[in-house]
Amino acid sequence: MTARITVAWALVGIPLAYGVVETMRKAVTLFTG
Amino acid sequence: MVPPVLARERTVAGPGYSRWLIPPAALAVHLCIGQVYATSVYKTALVQHFDTSLTAVGVIFSIAIVMLGLSAAVAGTWVDTNGPRAAMVVAAVFWSTGFLVGAVGIGTGQLWLVYLGYGVIGGIGLGIGYISPVSTLIKWFPDRPGLATGMAIMGFGGGALIASPLSARLMALYDSSYDATDPASVPDGHAVMLLFVTLGIVYFCFMLFGAFTVRVPADDWKPEGWDPGEVAEKPLVTTNSVSAANAIRTPQFWLLWVVLFCNVTAGIGILEQAAPMIQDFFREGADSSVSAAAAAGFVGLLSIANMAGRFVWSTTSDAIGRQPIYVVYLGVGIALYLVLALAGSSSTTLFVLLAAVIISFYGGGFATVPAYLRDLFGTFQVGAIHGRLLTAWSAAGVAGPLIVNKFLDAHGTPGELVAADYRPGLLTMVALLVVGLVCNLMIRPVHARFHEGSGRSEHEEVSA
Questions:
Q1: pLDDT digits (tens, 9 = 90+) for B296-345
Q2: Closest to B153 in 3D by CA, of B172, B176, B137
Q3: Do B37 and B159 meet the contact criterion of CB atoms below 8 Å apart?
Q4: Which of B35, B121, B302, B365 would be B163's cystine partner, CB 3.0–4.6 Å?
């Protein structure tokens, strides 16, 4: 069950992390110009 | 009727099934349908492809949001009756078909097909998908419903964060002349068509993962060590059940409808014009001290605040209660909006901070409302009641931009205004938040005559 939970969270967590990182990179321009 | 494999009875969890598999199942659906807030990435491409106006293309999004509210309201009872798996599969079919029909519309140059596909068909998938995991999550997490719904509805905010950069990359792949890093570069219609086909297929697979992972708890299941008696000890929390048909006859439902409407409208007041707004607030003559790139960064920051607010504030509501957290959203929101309107142009840092907290309250309002409904009406048909309440979102989606644009149009074009031009619109939002705050404070426990199993009398006094 632990492995299944890990895989399930990875499947949604990895795309979400990608989205957050990409957006943060864009947001940095607010402070750098 | 649904095929046996999708039937609610087939999705009852066996002993030992972990409830921590339910949030990723819900997120799989919400991350996909959250794409609806990433339409700006191909908006200009569609304007050029169809040789039409920005307004005509914007109608696609408006139809989808209106259909979201309508389908959630109409299909809510069906979702509660047939369970989350059937609902998620239906949502996946509608959402993906919407993309594919939309792709045919783009490929054949017929905008009405995009309205029908992405707007109407996809919009139905949005509504059913949005409410599909809500009542299941609340049943799995009776001890922490705010945390559970916060995780899922955070996914709706997160969906746009994924879809926006992913769509830009895919369009660059399908159209070699398109440079995603150059704001002036626009992909051709063929690339947008292929993007729609790709998203339709990928979202269908991802949503099916959610559908076949989700389970409903057995009737006698409860979290280990959790005492249901604790629930009844909290103010405004019922252990009784109210049907969806009865819920909409209660003052509590309509008070909460107004609360959600006011909170969402106020949030849209900033989101609608975020990029030009920050430039206008710091304008001196023709130039702004905030560059276009920095303004785009501001929009990204608001997206993060919107998503984080959904999780953080909804989880906080488990500790402090639903009515008090809405007092924070609306009451503190009033103070923040006032400072933004009257002193927001004094410092960029202050402006960004105020806007980020306001938008986090906007997201928090969405994520906390299912748990508020659970508190007032019980778990019996909370999904269907939530679906009906989402019509407030559709109404706010129309009213918010109308209010903002009406005030701004009187002064000029966003991107050429100054901070003072935004003041009437922002102060109108303050008034709306006051209305929402009063409605929230008027909410009392639902009268016993609306409870399931009670002898209902039309003439009994209603406690509101």
A1: 888 888 989 999 999 999 999 999 999 999 999 999 999 999 999 999 88
A2: B137
A3: yes
A4: B35
Query: Which residues is B288 bridged to in the sheet?
Result: B283
Name which of B266, B270, B269 is nearest B301 in CA terms: B270
Q: By the CB < 8 Å criterion, does A17 face chain B?
A: no
Burial B347-367 (b: 16+ CB within 10 A, else e): ebeebbbbbbbbbbbbbbbbb
List of residues 6+ apart from B192 with CB closer than 8 A: B42, B45, B46, B49, B106, B171
Whole-angstrom distance, CA of residue B350 vs CA of residue B290: 14
* Nearest alpha carbon to residue B214 among B29, B363, B355, B360: B29
> What's the confidence (pLDDT) of residue B457?
40
Separation of alpha carbons B133 and B83, rounded Å: 9
- Chain A residue with CA closest to B308: the answer is A20
The residue of A16, A24, A25, A28 whose CB has the most chain B CBs within 10 angstroms, and thus the best one to mutate to test that interface, is A16
- Take residue B232 and report the two structure tokens written for it: 């009844």
- Nearest by Cα to B23 from A12, A1, A16, A18: A12
Contact B416, B436 (CB under 8 A): no
Dist. CA B6–CA A3, nearest whole Å: 25
Token readout for B221 is 């299941």
Residue of B464, B396, B388 whose CA lies nearest to B79:
B388
User: Closest partner residue to B158 among A8, A19, A32, by Cβ?
Assistant: A19
A21 close to B (CB below 8 A) = no
Residues with Cβ < 8 Å from B228, sequence gap 6 or more?
A: B142, B222, B239
Lowest mean pLDDT among A14-18, B119-123, B264-268, B337-341: B264-268
SS3 state of residue B288: strand
Domains along chain B?
Answer: 17-213 (1.20.1250.20), 230-450 (1.20.1250.20)
pLDDT tens digits, B215-273? 999 988 888 888 877 766 777 888 888 999 999 999 999 999 999 999 999 988 788 77
What's the CA gap between B168 and B180, in Å, rounded?
Answer: 6
Residue B368 contacts residue B313 (beta carbons within 8 Å)? yes
Q: Is A3 on the interface with B (CB under 8 A)?
A: no
Q: Residue B19's closest chain A neighbor by CA?
A: A5
